[in-house]
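Predict the 3D structure for this chain.
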Amino acid sequence: MSQPQLSPEHIRQAAHWLARLWSEQATAEDEQACVHWRQSDPANEYAWQQLQQLQGHFDSVPARTGHRVLASGNRLSRRQLLVMTGVIASGAAITGIGTRQQWQPLLADQRTATGEMRSLRLADGTQLKLNTATSLNLRSDAAGHRLRLLRGELLVELPENARSLQLSCRDGVVQAHHGRLCLRQQAHDSQLAVYSGQASVELQRIEGESVTLNAGEAVTFSAQRVQPVRPADTNQLAWIDGRLVAERMPLTHFLAELGRYRQGMLRADPDLARLQLTGVFSLRNTDVTLARLPEVLPVRLRYFSRYWVKVEPA
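Done. Predicted structure below.
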């Protein structure tokens, strides 16, 4: 039987459950939710088993120290991250789980946790807004800013007198001198939207293959292919204010977006694919948003635990 294909998300979730169960705050509910998560997908179970094989590496860490590091969750210091990630990464190389690219976000210069949104202001007035579960590296000098988006979504606002920007991701390199643009890296491709100014993107694997976007334009691209340019959707920036704006959005798409902002699993019954949703919903309190769904759609919420929710037909 072949081994399941592991994605960065499988590894991230397995690490999340491992950290939660090793923390001093772990409950029986957490343990049961982890079991459900493992049973829901063969790749989840495989990622879990592979991480379990690394336990010997963690056994060398004093018990209280290990618990303190794991229990601190997304508030780890950079030194703690280096120690913890170094152990995981070394074990990953031995057991074959993950790659250097998959573990890089843990060592990023800037990062946000699931559900966290944060703003940064650089010396020349350039503003960066990091969406949920985003990691990036940042280097600035007299020549300009060089950013590497490792995971997630980033909004950049460059004033006219700002330094030039080079923003790279897995699929391409974006160049801009001023304006407002948003880059999102997804599982299989990336999206760039320009809301003011101008920006160009060059693909990583095809030399000379590039596209220039003007204000109000957006494009989806992979490392080898650029899709047709389309109008930019300003509703997609509602996350800046902690909102999710839906206009006749398929419920399955809505739940996938909402799931980016909450820990654990959020699933939809396949029979709900035909349902659509319109409205403005909170991203800062996803439990409140979920509670609203039965009020506007013929659905019900089934909570297996706090961290595993399934939306089913009513």
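The chain has three domains: 8-107, 112-233, 242-313.
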